[in-house]
Amino acid sequence: MSRAFSHAIVRAPCRAIARALTTAGLGRPDYLRAQRQHAAYVAALRRCGVDVIVLPPLEDFPDSAFVEDVALLTGRCAILTRPGAPTRRGEVTEMAGTLQDYFPELERIEPPGTVDGGDILEIDARYCVGLTERTNGDGARQAIAVLRRNGLDGETVAVDGALHLKTCVTYLDGGVALAWAALRDHRSLLGLDVIEVPKSEAYAANSLWVNGTVLLPAGHPRTARCVRDAGFPVIELEMSEFRKADGGLSCLSLRFTPPG
Ligand code: CIR
Fold first, then answer.
1. pLDDT tens per residue, the chain (260 residues)?
2. Are 197 and 191 in contact (CB under 8 A)?
3. Which of 35, 130, 134, 197 has its CA 20 to 30 A from that of 156?
């Protein structure tokens, strides 16, 4: 199965992003700066050959730019999640209509399950589901059951000290991953070439492979050098305002190729 994707869905940040959930302690995101950074993100996806669908801002949902958390899109199925943060659950309904344009059927995570898309890491059609404060065992079990019904597979990974699994690991391509040291020897990464992200650059562990190019947050030169040395072209993007809301590069889009 090719990992390349043709489409991505993003949602423009809203003014209310200043009130987004956060533990970062970096201050409130600045709306205008977030808008500029988001526009550069969209431009980078387009440079990578992706058809980007930009949804309008949702002022009722301060975290709604972080669209990755509301769905899991695979080549065979689409799952609407049930985010762990109650204030984010309405974002799922807001996304469903757009996904219906591309996927004939939408599966759903039902209560008491919770899943944030940021906890689901795809490694060449194998899915690792992080167990975090946002994704519980019941949600992970439901997600894995849907994957299996669709001929895919998944396993859980206990995550410590991070908001999401993908806060601390990114799969690039060709057997290469980026990860925090704590995860490097985890059984789910066995057999992969793991580029260890230095502690001082921990935020860069959430990066994004897009059709051969790697999008990295600006200001992480050691990680950028290692990724380039591994043979990937890199585009560095300013992420300061999303970082203030605990968000990284992957959170800002849902990538997919429409089935059929
Ligand atoms: C939240 O706490 O839900 C948002 N402020 C950040 C979500 C980041 N999403 C992601 O890592 N996939």
1. 457 999 999 999 999 999 999 999 999 999 999 999 999 999 999 999 999 999 999 999 999 999 999 999 999 999 999 999 999 999 999 999 999 999 999 999 999 999 999 999 999 989 999 999 999 999 999 999 999 999 999 999 999 999 999 999 999 999 999 999 998 888 889 999 999 999 999 999 999 999 999 999 999 999 999 999 999 999 999 999 999 999 999 999 999 999 87
2. no
3. 197
The pTM (predicted TM-score) of the whole model is 0.97
**Options 128, 164, 168, 226, the catalytic residue:** 164
Distance between start and end Cα atoms, the chain: 13
For residue 260, the CA-to-ligand 1 centroid distance in Å is 31
- With the most atoms of ligand 1 within 8 angstroms of its CB, the residue from 203, 251, 252 to mutate is 251
Nearest alpha-carbon partner for 18 in 7, 33, 28: 28
Assess contact for 59 and 125: CB atoms under 8 A. no
Ligand 1 atom closest to Cα of 246?
Answer: 6
